[in-house]
Amino acid sequence: MTTLHAAGGIAFDVSGAGESAVLLVHGLGGSKRAWPGVFQPLARTHRVVAMDLRGSGDSPLGGKPLSFEQLAADAVAVLDAASVDKAHVIGHSLGGVVTQQLLVDRPERVASAVLVSTSSKVGDKAAEGWMRLADVVEKRGLSDSPSSRTRAFAEGFADRHPELIDEIGRIAAASDRHGYAAQARIAARYDYTESLASVRTPCMIIQGLADRLTSPGGSVILSRAIRGSRLEMIEGVGHNAHIEMGQAFVDLVREQIGPGAADGTE
């Protein structure tokens, strides 16, 4: 695995040498390291690029107001820096919204998309919650309480996998509070439902039915907005579906992106 930087200082890890590439775009409070059980298995058959969104991990927030347009442009800069013309893009939560922006703005750079635990729009009640969260985090920093660590997982998962909970908790705790707040504020205002009607890129939507952060109903609306998309509703899985599902998530993704190179490619 090699860590590189694209234009604007956007950090990304890259590994693998498959003929096709995968771009991983994390969610709020995540980083390029927030893909345990996904990055390395996919790197055996594909060239995998995992980026830090602006304001997360090793990517600076910068001085300009944050927007999904900016985050999508950063993703394109990462692909350019990694010498990738077109990638299968996997976006989790906030990263799923960035992926929608890419589908609308730069469809020629997206071979296919996997949208995980995300939605095409935000309702008024959810928007108010995002803005309150942004204010609290900016003033006090992120909470590291047991409840905040486990809320993004289905009930009972934390008891069975405490090591994973600790790993994701450490990544979230390392988040820059200003970057987190800026991302939370743009998460309060978006609606791609109509724009997605023009998308012809193959898309898969993965949604856990035990998700306590993103309503499964939002994924249904998203699937209806993208013509021909495939919707997978998974029983007993929470918001961090890509972590909770383990190998089953990788297997499902391979159905969308193809097998890639022979297993064992580094």
General description of the model:
This protein has 266 residues and is an alpha/beta fold. It is 39% helix and 16% strand. The protein is built from eleven helices and eight strands. Strands 1-2-4-3-5-6-7-8 form an eight-stranded mixed sheet, sandwiched between helices. Strand 7 (203-208), helix 9 (216-225) and strand 8 (230-234) form a beta-alpha-beta unit. The longest helix has 17 residues, at 124-140. The chain is globular. The N and C termini lie close together (10 Å).
The gist of it:
With 266 residues, the chain is of the alpha/beta class. It is built from 11 helices and 8 strands. Helix 9 (216-225) links the parallel strand 7 (203-208) and strand 8.
What's the structural blueprint in terms of helices and strands?
Elements: E1 2-5, E2 11-15, E3 21-25, H1 39-43, E4 47-51, H2 68-81, E5 87-92, H3 94-105, E6 110-116, H4 124-140, H5 146-150, H6 157-160, H7 162-173, H8 177-187, E7 203-208, H9 216-225, E8 230-234, H10 241-244, H11 247-257
Parallel strand pairs: 3-4, 3-5, 5-6, 6-7, 7-8
Antiparallel strand pairs: 1-2, 2-4
Descriptive terms for the model:
single chain; 266 residues; alpha/beta; 8-stranded mixed β-sheet; 11 helices; 8 strands; 39% helix
The helix tally amounts to: 11
What is the terminal-to-terminal distance?
A: 10 Å
Tell me roughly what share of residues is in helical segments: 25-40%
Please provide the ordered H/E string of secondary-structure elements.
EEEHEHEHEHHHHHEHEHH
Q: Which secondary-structure class do the elements indicate?
A: alpha/beta
Query: Number of DSSP strands?
Result: 8
Strand content: 15-25%
Radius of gyration: 17 Å
Rounded mean pLDDT is 94
Low-confidence stretches: none
